[in-house]
Design a protein that fits this description.
The structure holds two protein chains of two kinds.
Chain A (H helix, E strand, L loop, with lengths): L7 E10 L2 E11 L5 E5 L6 H9 L6 E5 L4 H6 L1 E4 L10 H11 L4 H14 L15 H13 L5 E5 L7 H16 L3 E5 L3 H7 L2 E6 L2 E7 H6 L4 H8 L5
Parallel strand pairs in A: 3-7, 3-8, 5-6, 6-7
Antiparallel strand pairs in A: 1-2, 1-4, 8-9
Helix pairs in contact in A: 3-4, 3-5, 5-6
Chain B lengths: L1 H15 L3 H34 L5 H11 L4 H12 L14 H37 L4 H11 L1 H16 L3 H7 L9 H10 L3 H25 L9
Helix pairs in contact in B: 1-10, 2-5, 2-6, 2-7, 3-5, 4-5, 4-8, 5-6, 5-7, 5-8, 7-10, 9-10
The chains are: A alpha/beta, B mainly alpha.
Chain lengths: 239, 234
């Protein structure tokens, strides 16, 4: 068994859709060191596409994405949380246990593990209720727990706190920080600079499908090296 | 108006006195229809889910064909099944013509495309919602189908009940392959046709009311038993 599926290397990776280049060419490496890499940039910069490309939800039209393990191991040891949480039409507990069911974990064992997570995210009282009755913030916490139950090496988060209130955001950030502490590498897209300051170990600034700047968080927030990043941080429009 | 009232009275009379013939043909109607719908569901529901999660070259054509088959003319189905099961046909050796089994076969052919097509439509909508998540979790095709079938079970119930509604009221095919033989293949619809032929409209209408009441009761019972309304909006 491999220690980690990292590093992941993007080599001249390009994604095109309907003839239009969405991202790339990208040359990028996420190493084995832990932490939280945060993608920032304006709408349409290609943040979501980059996350989906690394996770295997998009195919590279050109170039390659190479992980440091076999394909089946790579896919088994990463998770993704979408901006709009997807809940299955079943109970909260069954939602969280679902990835374990898929991996063939015994039903009772999977439910017991899910019960620990549901306790941790504060939804134990509604564990057996249908998940669709949850609020937006609760659904996103559920999605986080479902993504973390498999103890992934890498967790991709696509603006997980967009449209959430302060309390829910805080709760999601607690889960992210706890995952980082337990060794999960986080790669996350966000529009929230405050959140990036709180969580990031390094920042990737994306603009027009490319990484314009990749720097440690303190260096980036101390003063971005590129004009585009500086303008974006100031709140200027990037056209 | 008088005929309608007489029909209603005849229906009440048949039900109150538990007319032996009525009970027999009603039970046969149920036996043939439930068996056909059960087998059609075993085939149609997984096929609908498979079609929702699978991409292949002629997928659109397959879907269009399946939708077109929903409107299969029962008389034509009956005729084809008749030819296949008749003594000179390829399955003549089984001696199935003019038996309830022949009626079940004809109904399966009529109902399966309906159940499969309606199931495909609801599975496709659910697959649209689940697509990224289930791909992300790296589910196998079989696991995707199982998840869709389980999570979409309430809308699949509607597909199955639609098939039941079509089958219980079917007459064209089962008249041809069943032959409306008394105490053997007579069912409610063929009995109604016979009574109309004899000019006995009140009894025909009475049987019709029993048929409708039976369909409504079975639909209600299934909805109540499966708690479609109590458990939310799925």
């Amino acid at each position: 068994m491999v220690d980690s599926i990292l590093p992941v290397v993007l080599d001249q990776a390009i994604v095109r859709k309907e003839g239009r280049q969405i991202v790339g060419p990208l040359n990028l490496t996420f190493g084995r060191e832990g932490g939280c890499s945060i993608l920032v940039g304006p709408n349409g910069a290609g943040k979501t596409t980059l996350l989906r490309l690394m996770h295997g939800l998009e195919r590279a039209s050109e170039g390659r994405v190479t992980w440091s393990a076999r394909k089946d191991t790579v896919y088994a040891r990463q998770s993704f949380v979408f901006q709009a949480p997807v809940v299955l039409r079943r109970s909260c507990l069954e939602n969280i246990a679902y990835p374990l069911f898929v991996r063939g974990v015994q039903r009772e064992k999977a439910r017991a593990e899910a019960a620990k997570w549901i306790e941790d995210i504060g939804l134990a009282e509604v564990a057996h209720n249908d998940a669709h009755v949850l609020s937006g913030g609760e659904k996103q916490k559920l999605a986080m727990a479902r993504a973390l139950i498999t103890k992934p090496d890498v967790l991709f988060l696509d603006e997980p706190t967009a449209n959430l209130d302060g309390a829910s955001t805080q709760e999601i950030e607690r889960l992210i920080a706890s995952a980082v502490q337990s060794g999960t590498r986080i790669v996350m897209a966000t529009h929230d600079f405050g959140q990036a300051r709180r969580l990031a170990t390094d920042i990737l600034f994306m603009y027009r499908g490319r990484i314009h700047e990749h720097a440690a968080a303190d260096i980036f927030f101390g003063g971005p090296a590129t004009d585009e990043a500086a303008k974006f941080m100031k709140g200027d429009l990037l056209i | 108006m008088n005929d309608l009232l007489a029909g209603l009275m005849a229906a009440i009379d048949l039900i109150i006195h538990l007319d032996r013939d009525l009970v027999e043909i009603s039970l046969r109607s149920l036996q043939v229809t439930v068996t056909a719908v059960f087998i059609a569901s075993l085939v149609g529901l997984p096929f609908g889910a498979w079609l929702a999660v699978t991409r292949f070259r002629y997928r659109r054509l397959a879907i269009a064909l399946l939708n077109a088959l929903m409107g299969l003319p029962p008389v034509v189905v009956g005729l084809v099944v008749y030819i296949l099961l008749s003594r000179s046909g390829p399955f003549g050796v089984f001696n199935l013509l003019f038996t309830p089994t022949a009626m079940i076969i004809a109904q399966i052919i009529i109902v399966t495309p309906i159940i499969a097509s309606l199931s495909h439509q609801s599975m496709r909508d659910l697959w649209y919602l689940y697509h990224d998540l289930l791909i992300s979790i790296r589910t196998s095709k079989w696991q995707r189908m199982r998840t869709l079938l389980w999570d979409g079970r309430r809308s699949l119930l509607t597909a199955t009940l639609t098939g039941f509604g079509r089958a219980i009221g079917e007459i064209g095919a089962i008249m041809i392959v069943g032959g409306n033989i008394d105490h053997l293949t007579r069912v409610l619809t063929t009995a109604i046709a016979l009574e109309v032929g004899k000019g006995n409209f009140p009894l025909a209408l009475g049987l019709g009311i029993v048929l409708i009441a039976m369909a409504i009761l079975i639909n209600l019972a299934i909805h109540i038993l499966s708690r479609t309304e109590r458990e939310g909006t799925w």
